[in-house]
Amino acid sequence: MGEKVLITGNEAIGEAAIKAGCRFFFGYPITPQNKIPEYLSYRLPQVGGCFIQAESEIAAIYMVFGAAGAGARVMTSSSSPGISLKQEGISYIAGAELPCVIVNVMRGGPGLGGILPSQADYFQATKGGGHGGYHMLVLAPSTVQESVDLMTDAFDLADKYRNPVMVLADGYIGQMMEPVEFKERPQKVLPTKNWAIAGAKNRPRNLIRSLYLDPEELEQHNLKLHRKYLEMAKNEVRVETYLTEDAEIIIAAYGTVARIAKTAIKMLRERGIKAGLVRPITVYPFPYETFAKISEKVDNILVVEMSLGQMIEDVKLGVCGKAKVHFYGRTGGMVPTYDEIVTQIEKIVKEEVA
After folding, report:
1. pLDDT reported for residue 204
2. pLDDT (0 to 100) of residue 187
């Protein structure tokens, strides 16, 4: 075990990015992710990197496009409305097959909403968000330590698939302080970036683009991207199961809510109700197979979210009608409590007995 440091989630994300080899950050302030650019504004110059506060979120994402096209490890971060402004650029980055990392520390909405935590950007993150039918790999940490660990994975996955990767956190994870260990991890063998625009004296000229005027050529490009997404779904699904072996009812949750759900599960088991948790870590690709298998063992699944229901649609697709899917959500910055979750589970159990 290495030495642990007490640090906020946002600062931990910034430091983890540096340790993962990120040397370029372009962004714009918005709460509750402000500590990420603030931290990187003084840390990146210390390691020979570049920090630029762009004039807008739109400018920032196209700076990311440029650095990624030159082969650099690059990231940006924002919170919900800022991510919305970046969506056109993210679509361009996906279409041009460029690797980068995007962190969304979600806040309440729609519109300006509020600065408190939310999970209402799930659709935006997992269904593309911008135009054209692209996908990002989307990683959803539930602790500050996991945020650190997933940042390294995010950069590696971006390079492996030549695709943007999003780390989807919420305001609690971004601003809470927890002890964190920055682990030394073995360097993965990743594809050489021979596609990058980095001078062409001794090789053919590279061209990075997302524009294909010939419809047949554009279709082939889209089919190529689709094959990549299928490969992600085959190889990159991550999910945590907690006390599911003997569970008679399942809670489905991700991020901060999953932590609250674990406390609720302990309380339920003390009351004789065998509850378990399925926590997606990758919300794209989604662990459909895990939910399909769990629906063969249990009759009821309660989805709990800090929204009025988004991930529930993927859960329903996973169980394919084999189990009843219930929902409990809080929104506007309100967070489900473990007592509320316990009450919802007890209500479902009582109805089943009746």
Report:
1. 78
2. 76
Residue 105 has φ and ψ, to the nearest 5°, of -95, 95
Q: Taking the domain 4-235, which CATH number applies?
A: 3.40.50.970
The pLDDT score that the predictor gives to residue 199 is 75
| The predicted structure's pLDDT at residue 128 | 87
Cis omega before residue 32 (within 30°)? Answer: yes
How far is 74 from 72, CA to CA, in rounded Å?
6
Token pair for residue 88?
């056109």
- The structure's pTM equals 0.96
Q: Please compute Rg for the chain using Cα positions.
A: 21
Torsion angle in degrees (nearest 10) through CA of 328, 332, 335, 336 = -20
Instruction: Domain ranges for the chain, please list them.
Output: 4-235, 239-353
- Please provide the CATH number assigned to the domain covering 239-353: 3.40.50.920
The whole-angstrom separation of Cα 109 and Cα 118 is 8
Taking alpha carbons only, the member of 20, 337, 11 closest to residue 177 is 11
DSSP 273-292: --EEEEEESEEES--HHHHH
pLDDT for 201: 74
**How many angstroms separate the Cα of 57 from the Cα of each of 213, 228, 273?**
28, 28, 48
**Which pLDDT score, from 0 to 100, does residue 46 have?**
98
> Looking at this protein, which amino acid is placed at residue 171?
G
Q: Give the model's pLDDT for residue 259.
A: 97
Residues in the chain: 354
Q: Is 106 helix (H, G, I), strand (E, B) or coil?
A: strand
Spatial separation of the C-alpha atoms in residues 40 and 169, rounded to whole Å:
18
The residues of the chain scoring below 70 in pLDDT are 1, 200, 354
